Amino acid sequence: MADLYQPKPEHKFTFGLWTIGNQGRDPFGAAVRLPLKPTYSVKKLSELGAYGVNLHDNDLIPFDASASERDQIVKEFKQALNDYGMKVPMATTNLFYHPVFKDGAFTSNDPKVRAFAIQKTMNAIDLGAELGATIYVFWGGREGAEVDAAKNGPDTIKWNREAMNFFTNYVKDQGYSMRFALEAKPNEPRGDLYLSTTGHMLHFIETLDHPEMVGVNPEFAHETMAGLNFLHGVVQAYEAGKLFHIDLNDQKMSRFDQDLRFGSENIKLAFLLVKFLEDTGWDGSRHFDAHAYRTEDEQGVWDFAAGCMRSYLILKEKARRFNEDSEIQGMLSEIRVRDEELEGLMSAYSAESAKQLRTMDFKPDELAKKGLQYEKLDQLTFEILMGVR
Ligand code: GCO
Ligand code: MN
Ligand code: MN
User: Fold this and answer.
1) In terms of domains, do 264 and 345 share one?
2) For 152-174, how does the pLDDT look when each residue is reduced to its tens digit (9 = 90+)?
3) 330 Cα–ligand 3 center, Å
4) What's this model's pTM, rounded to 2 decimal places?
């Protein structure tokens, strides 16, 4: 029997160069792993069955590289992509590492810093386009504050909006086929980050010049850090036609950004997420924004990468079992009650529907007596996940 859990390019698994390239630095300790050459990461990930790699400008091109160095690096990288049949579906800008961004990029109080951030991002968008990326992510790592008194709050929103408008117009002008995905995070590295959840982003997008070009990139860890249910954020983005990209990883609630291997912590939620993505047929990359534990050597990094993809495929197979389980499906059709007449009345207001609803007797005490069988449903879900069904 073919291995159901063997990743293949058709599964569209991607990793950031920064994820497998993470050297295990943390605020308390130095790097524990050597840097990986991007061309080597492309080779290794293709051998593991990934579809592509995503990158920040500076994951590939050093901050201070000359134009000719840049061109040489890009040439070699494109050759590796070609040799190993790997894609770059998404690109982004590093607007957080260099000290110039210590108080933000698009929301720095200094117009020169903001202008530099725009210049850097235009160059990075060009790089993304050259590598074939059709999704461009914006994660405002330094767009936030420790001292709220320092900035006029509405300005930070206005500057962010102006930057997004600048870039959508830039992309149109260049004729690139590229859409933007905004990634929210509640805190870290700043004490508080602006536009801190996917919900904040969804509203912000509607205030832009070209909202149709802009969606979200929700991350499992970030919504969890904010104490939120990641699935709910993803569902809302999807329903609004705004799920342009997704950052898969895992996270314990109320901790620092752990970037754990997908599926390693919140198994049930990861299952429901995979089930949602697969049931809806969402066609974006299954992108992992996570990294190996600091305890690992290079082999541990590849174990981590293989583990993310394999766990996704295991959960996908569990979703198939869930969908084909006649007891579960029977329960669901009872639980998800349908009533065409009532649903028709509620679906659109009219004076007539208001009048009809007012006259109906719903017998709330009777309705309230019904048990909903959620204990059993949840137990059966657990049993699917544990492999006993
Ligand atoms: C983080 C973020 C980043 C972004 C990346 C791409 O917490 O560090 O998740 O990994 O996803 O910068 O935009
Ligand atoms: Mn993150
Ligand atoms: Mn991320």
Assistant:
1) no
2) 999 999 999 999 999 999 999 99
3) 38
4) 0.97
